[in-house]
Write a structure and sequence with these properties.
single chain, 433 residues, alpha/beta, TIM Barrel, 2 domains, ten-stranded mixed beta sheet, three-stranded antiparallel beta sheet, 17 strands
Length: 433
């Protein structure tokens, strides 16, 4: 027998204990110092533990922390990852009703196309695709997301007919459906909120803010220069109270970070509402800096006067779940029927992986290998990060044959595992106070 190579000791809040964390299986064992020392002493000879402490040995074996010598744990881990990502129980479908937008944010990576809209023929094809998916005996859940552009610009003409058809297909086949939107919130009117909540049971939205009122209004404003802050705050409060789960995405930089305290305070009446969460994300063009670190520390101090659900106490919470684009049953359908795997790149023809034709995805010959998105590098077999690696499909695609992470030290790997453990154990208590 041998110890799993995907284990790490984590500091316990009780100084008389340590945590043994098996992160391939997410198994957590609290140990007193003597048992932790026993494991360390016999890390290369685990059979000795069986003679000294049979109960501990059996516990470790049952949780696959001690495994047979002949077990190739790398292959086991790769198979587990592929099995998870290849599961056909959940279909993840992202739709771009339009690539047009009513705002022009400086950091947006999309090329907005005035007048672009999914036509009736393509809507029918999307509905056919969903119907066929719902009729599959193995599918259990449909996650239907709307992106763009601003998807709510085409709510009545594109979004609503697709949702109605998808709900009907799922209901007839006994499948669950979750509908989500990535939006700027301007068009999330009371009429649309009421219509959504009457049509589908589970609705969520992610709405981006760029700071407090004045800071946000300098980024997200109408063509006449008027800011959108008050309108979006009003829209979201109504949506939250109507039962729509709302993630307020705070796109921060070193310059705007402190101003988010005003945004948090403007939702103080809803801090205890289970339908509201704040999620802080650094703008992708913003680099690490001493000023950014300083302002984040100051902001967290300010935020302690409130109690709200957020990811502020997390290190890298995205690690807990693979990127949506890593799943085999996950595609993005552009307004014109082009198929993509990821929303974080331009929707150019050169980036597409196929087209939607007669309600079926036809993969491009040149991109046929992309029908199975997850790929691994030769370094993966030796890397202790393998079970929790968060290198997504797009990063792998952009770095063929070379790990985008580059050379990572043992100290950095250990630190990342510690952070993963912290996020994993904090997910049940996400309030920040």
């Amino acid at each position: 027998m041998k110890f799993s190579k995907y284990i790490q000791f984590i500091k316990h809040e009780d100084n008389d204990k340590e945590v043994l964390f098996a992160y391939r299986q997410n198994e957590i064992i609290d140990l007193d110092k003597r048992l932790a020392s026993l494991i360390r002493t016999n890390i290369d000879t685990p059979d000795n533990i069986r003679d000294i402490h049979p109960e501990l040995y059996n516990c470790l074996a049952e949780r696959q922390i001690i495994i047979p010598d002949e077990c190739d744990e790398t292959i086991l881990c790769l198979n587990e990852i592929n099995q998870k990502l290849s599961s056909d129980q959940t279909v993840r479908l992202t739709i771009n009703p339009t690539m047009d937008c009513n705002l022009r944010c400086w950091y947006c990576y999309e090329n907005h196309m005035t007048g672009s809209v999914m036509d009736k023929s393509m809507i029918r094809q999307v509905c056919d695709y969903i119907r066929k998916a719902a009729e599959s005996p193995t599918m259990e859940n449909l996650i239907l997301s709307f992106f763009g552009g601003e998807p709510l610009l085409r709510y009545n003409s594109v979004v609503k007919p697709i949702i109605i058809s998808a709900c009907d297909s799922c209901k007839r086949n006994g499948k669950a459906i979750l509908v989500s939107f990535t939006s700027n919130g301007v068009c999330l009117t009371r009429h649309i909120v009421d219509d959504l909540t009457e049509t589908v049971n589970n609705v969520s939205v992610q709405i981006a803010f760029d700071g407090g009122k004045s800071t946000h209004n300098n980024v997200k404003k109408f063509a006449n220069g008027d800011g959108t802050y008050d309108l979006v705050v009003s829209n979201l409060k109504y949506a939250i109270n109507k039962g729509i789960f709302t993630t307020i995405r705070c796109n921060y930089t070193a310059t705007n970070l402190i101003s988010f305290a005003e945004l948090v305070e403007d939702f103080i009446d809803l801090h205890e509402n289970k339908n509201l969460k704040f999620s802080f994300h650094r703008v992708w063009q913003e680099k690490d800096s001493e000023l950014l670190t300083k302002h984040m520390s100051e902001f967290k101090t300010i935020a302690k006067q409130f109690r709200f659900s957020s990811n502020l106490s997390s290190h890298a919470v995205v690690n807990l779940s693979p990127c949506y684009a890593d799943y085999l049953n996950s595609v993005v359908i552009n307004y014109n029927g082009d198929i993509f795997r990821c929303t974080a790149r331009d929707f150019k023809k050169s980036n597409r992986i196929g087209i939607l034709k007669n309600g079926t995805i036809v993969f491009d010959d040149a991109q046929s290998s992309e029908s199975s998105p997850r790929r691994f590098y030769k370094e993966c077999g030796e890397c202790k990060m393998l079970p929790i690696c968060n290198i997504c499909y797009q990063q792998r695609k952009d770095s063929p044959g070379i790990c985008p992470q580059g050379e990572i030290s043992n100290e950095d790997i250990s630190a990342n595992i510690d952070k993963y453990y912290s996020d994993l154990t904090n997910t049940s208590n996400q309030s920040y106070s």
